[in-house]
Write a structure and sequence with these properties.
By secondary structure, the protein is mainly beta. The chain has one domain. About 5% of the residues lie in helices and about 35% in strands. The strands form three sheets. It has a five-stranded antiparallel sheet, with no helix packed on it. A two-stranded antiparallel ribbon has the order 4-5. Strand 2 and strand 3 form a beta hairpin. The longest helix has 6 residues. It is elongated and about 60 Å long. The termini are far apart.
Amino acid sequence: MSTAKIQTGDTVQVISGNYRGTVGVVTKVIITKARNGLTMKRASVSTVPKIAKYRKSQSVQGTTYPGQKFDIDRTIDLSNLNLFTGSTISKSMIELKDGKKVRVYKKTSETVTKEKVAKIKVGPQLETDSK
């Protein structure tokens, strides 16, 4: 199994679309396979305004399950996300070393670990108001 370039817990920046430039933390990565054999890689990102969740309703199923509404995380394609280093707002590309399956920053040639990525905090100007 190959190592994904963006994993759960990484701090990422949206690089295209309506929410370009916003920073968030990946809550889960979803990999699905379509009928034609292509794989779709999508990620659920927290702290991105208005696309973090949407409401879905479930109808009544007999007398045991009442109808309800619940929130579901929306997903963003992995091609629209970039790993965010925290020191710079610019892109930080990742390559995979052969044989070791280690994530490495291309610009600085340092390895990416969960401890380094988890320490990066989202700035107050990028956080959303939850009301």
